[in-house]
Design a protein that fits this description.
Blueprint lengths: L2 H10 L2 H10 L4 H8 L7 H19 L13 H8 L6 H22 L6 H6 L7 H13 L12 H26 L1 H4 L8 E3 L2 E7 L8 E6 L5 E6 H34 L1 H26 L6 E3 L4 E6 L2 H6 L6 E5 L5 E5 L6 H16 L11 E3 L3 E5 L12 H19 L10 E6 L7 H17 L3 E5 L3 H9 L3 E9 L4 E8 L7 H7 L4 H10 L2 H84 L2 H22 L16 E4 L4 E5 L8 E6 L2 E6 L3 E5 L30 E5 L5 H18 L3 E5 L6 H12 L3 E6 L9 E6 L1
Parallel strand pairs: 5-9, 8-12, 8-13, 10-11, 11-12, 20-21
Antiparallel strand pairs: 1-2, 2-4, 3-4, 6-7, 13-14, 15-16, 15-19, 16-17, 17-18, 21-23, 22-23
Helix pairs in contact: 2-3, 2-12, 3-12, 4-12, 5-11, 5-12, 6-8, 6-12, 8-11, 9-11, 16-17, 18-19, 20-21, 20-22, 22-23
């Protein structure tokens, strides 16, 4: 398709407005230039690559990982001058350095994120070998400061020459200060200041007094009252300053020439960097445009398949707060979509939306629709929208349209054969096909043209008011109807596209809404043929049914969403209740366990006293109190689910010691017994049957410990550094303070029942909260005689050694 052909199509689609917006989002002149010369890919893979670049740039922005700012000057002119042997100015070199610095920043940024942004890394491939360019940047920065001035430290010679010139100027200022304050000059000076003309230091002398001061006049004030005179005594010093400045300037020019030569040698490499930076500026502009038009990346195909969900015209999104979204579906079986409906209903907007999307995806631009949409890549596009009449060439609207259609058919005929099975490569958009002529002939000609266009393997979207085309789309394979909804109740368009249903023109209703007289409207209705009137009525009824169906779908969708939300809230409430119940039971269990431990500590204290006082009554009373606490704990905790009566268990059965949360293995049957032996870990103890809860029949057989071996648990180990290895080691690292406290209480109970003198708590350092919580509890525990931090060999302050009563 010729360039002029495409240019006309792009113009009627307002593609230039998209390009202008895109270019305005660029940060550099070269980036804006790249946006205006945007390449439209013709292959689906290359279009996907451009789309991925934009998507990765958008993702970086959304993740807060901002891409380096790409704001640089176009130094291609400076590179051309350098290539011709010219010396560049300091600001030119500064701009080259800035561009190279941004190139290095981009390369470093991408290299650290290679796995996340492979498409952007591929676009920056030519930035990799920057070794010599980095050296050039260092060379420039050593000589030129960020403001574009030559540094006095650029070379040792320049530093020496600059210092000499400064010294001379300081001497001159000292001499001038003496002159301005001297009595000899007091009468002849116009004012007490000095001036400079062409680099020479002068003093302002009254015009009538100039003969009294020997020297050279360099300038006269506008009023003529003041002459600027170089006193003879300053001439030699001024000459020395001028020579020194010339020597400085000569060294500066030498430095600039040297660096300019280096720039010229690296000119092609610098241009590649500029080219990549311009491309990335363009990609960043695409990402910014995506955010403005609420664009999303869509799937691309080369099968002519168009599936747009929630599509909106991007230029309308830029200019309006709310735009009605529409769904449009043209799969591989549909070659032509016929859109009908009322005037001002949005048919042309829909046509332009499809056309702009076709161009945008080829450029890698995100389109204004839902992300699950799909768009075909059409290498060629033709759009005939609006009135192309040309009075200069004596072409009417009809003639102009026909001329374009003939050119399109010639091009299509040359590119594909009739009946071609390949996917269509040309998208054709026709607004009101064959108008401005007799309606009967126009409808017939439009139908014939539409059939021929599809026969030539083109994908066509056409708007029309012709009933013949609506009937064609309803009855012919490969054709499909669509309409823009019109609300008869309010006599206004809704701008909602309805797929599969043709629409009426509603011209008479709209004319009435606009204020046309009732008599004229009635006369118009009488002139409409019975068949056309019936067809309009059918189309209106069909649209009304479709509108009711759409409303019902919206209500159903709303009810479904409400039901799902209610179900989700119910699940959350149930989970919160279960969690609350678990927490409440856990807290109750911990409290009862503490009460039980406290009671047992009292019993232990009474037994200790019994050994001294031999008052058996006190011991029995304490044991009775302990039994009462145990019974209360069992009653308050309630039955445990999944349990079996202890009496049904034989040796090897699994049991839990009520109130302690400790599980063990029966070493003998509990039938007809008040106390039984239970193995907890590797230790054996005697426990009242009333304190046991049966958990099930275990496979493990009871065994006794070897005589003399210290009791140990598989979950705990004895610290070798203690005075006796008869101790528990409890590893609490990684646990919450609450869980760690539970484990500590259980360990204290096991130690007390086993007659162990020590336990060792390993809690680590961490934030210190766990250690503090445990030691606060140990201060009040009735089982604890004293506790201390572990020695260095025992684990230091990350361990607490507890001595039991």
């Amino acid at each position: 398709m010729s360039e002029s052909f495409f240019a006309k199509s792009a113009a009627v689609l307002e593609w230039d407005r998209i390009i202008d917006t895109l270019a305005g989002l660029a940060h550099s002149a070269m980036g804006a230039e790249r946006c205006r010369a945007l390449v439209l890919e013709t292959g689906v893979e290359s279009a996907r690559a451009r789309m991925r670049e934009t998507g990765e740039m958008v993702a970086l922005s959304e993740e807060g990982d901002s891409f380096p700012s790409i704001s640089f000057s176009d130094v291609r002119g400076a590179l051309l001058r350098a290539a011709k042997g010219a010396g560049l100015e300091p600001h030119d070199l500064r701009d080259v350095s800035v561009a190279l610095g941004i190139g290095g920043d981009v390369a470093g940024f991408l290299s650290r994120r290679h796995d996340r942004v492979p498409a952007l890394c591929a676009a920056a491939a030519s930035l990799e070998p920057l070794g010599e360019l980095r050296q050039l940047k260092v060379m420039i920065d050593r000589a030129v400061d960020p403001e574009g001035n030559i540094r006095e430290s650029a070379t040792p010679d320049l530093r020496r020459l600059s210092q000499h010139a400064h010294d001379l100027k300081q001497r001159m200022r000292d001499r001038l200060a003496v002159i301005l304050e001297s009595r000899r000059y007091a009468e002849v000076l116009q004012e007490r200041y000095f001036a400079q003309r062409e680099g020479r230091y002068l003093v302002p002398i009254k015009a009538e007094m100039r003969g009294r001061v020997p020297g050279i006049v360099h300038d006269v004030s506008a009023s003529g009252a003041t002459v600027f005179l170089e006193p003879r005594e300053l001439v030699e010093l001024n000459n020395s300053i001028k020579v020194a400045e010339l020597e400085v300037e000569r060294e500066v020019r030498r430095i600039l020439k040297e660096i300019s030569t280096a720039v010229a040698e690296q000119g092609p490499a610098i241009e590649r960097v500029l080219d990549v930076l311009a491309e990335f500026d363009c990609i960043a502009a695409k990402a910014a445009l995506s955010r403005l038009v609420k664009g999303k990346p869509v799937s691309l195909n080369d099968r002519g398949r168009i599936v747009l969900r929630q599509a909106r015209h991007p230029l309308l999104v830029l200019s309006r707060e709310h735009v009605v979204p529409n769904d449009l579906r043209l799969d591989e079986t549909v070659r032509a979509l016929v859109i009908s409906g009322p005037n001002t209903g949005g048919k042309t907007v829909t046509l332009k939306t499809v056309g702009l999307f076709a161009l945008m995806v080829r450029a890698g631009l995100h389109v204004s629709c839902a992300p699950d949409s799909e768009m075909a890549v059409f290498p060629e596009l033709f759009a005939d929208i609006g009135d192309p009449q040309d009075l200069a060439r004596d072409l009417s609207s009809f003639s102009a349209h026909m001329t374009q259609m003939i050119a399109l058919l010639r091009h299509a005929g040359a590119g594909s054969a009739a009946g071609d099975d390949r996917a269509p490569e040309t998208l054709v958009l026709l607004d009101e096909l064959v108008t401005s002529t007799d309606p009967t002939e126009g409808a017939a000609l439009a139908e014939a043209l539409l059939v021929e266009l599809t026969r030539q393997n083109l994908k066509v979207v056409v708007t029309t008011h012709y009933n013949a085309l609506k009937l064609l789309a309803q009855t012919t394979p490969g054709f499909k109807n669509a309409s823009l909804e019109f609300d008869v109740g309010t006599l206004s368009p809704t701008y909602r596209l309805i797929m599969g249903v043709p629409g009426g023109s509603s011209a008479i209703e709209i004319a009435g809404r606009l204020g046309l007289g009732d008599a004229i409207l009635e006369h118009a209705l009488q002139l409409i043929t019975r068949e056309d009137r019936l067809l309009e009525q059918v189309l209106e009824d069909l649209q009304e049914k479709q509108r009711r169906l759409h409303r019902d779908e919206e209500v159903i969708a709303g009810l479904k969403a409400e039901a799902e939300e209610s179900a989700r809230e119910a699940r959350e409430i149930a989970e919160r209740l279960r969690a609350s119940e678990r927490e409440e039971k856990k807290g109750m269990k911990r409290k009862l366990t503490e009460d039980l431990l406290r009671a047992r500590a009292e019993v232990q204290a009474i037994l200790e006293e019994l050994k001294r006082d031999r008052t058996l009554i006190k011991a029995k009373e304490a044991k009775r109190q302990l039994a009462e606490v145990d019974a209360q704990a069992s009653a308050r905790l309630g039955p445990v689910t999944g349990t079996v009566p202890v009496e049904q268990l034989d040796a090897g059965g699994m049991v839990e010691i009520s109130g302690l949360g400790t599980t063990g293995v029966l070493l003998e049957s509990a039938r007809d017994k008040r106390r039984v032996r239970v193995r907890v870990g590797d230790r054996e103890m005697s426990v009242a049957v009333s304190q046991l809860v049966g958990l099930g029949h275990g496979e493990e057989q009871p065994h006794r410990e070897q005589k003399g071996s210290p009791p140990r648990s598989p979950a705990v180990e004895g610290p070798a550094s203690l005075e006796t290895d008869q101790a528990l080691v409890v590893d609490l690292r990684g646990k919450t303070a609450e869980d760690a406290l539970d484990e500590t209480i259980k360990a204290l109970d096991r130690a007390a029942m086993g007659g162990l003198p020590w336990i060792r708590l390993i809690h680590g350092h961490g934030t210190g909260r766990l250690k503090a919580s445990l030691r606060d509890y140990l201060e009040t525990s009735p089982y604890v005689a004293r506790f201390r931090p572990g020695a260095r060999a025992e684990g230091g302050d990350g361990v607490t050694i507890v001595e039991l009563r």
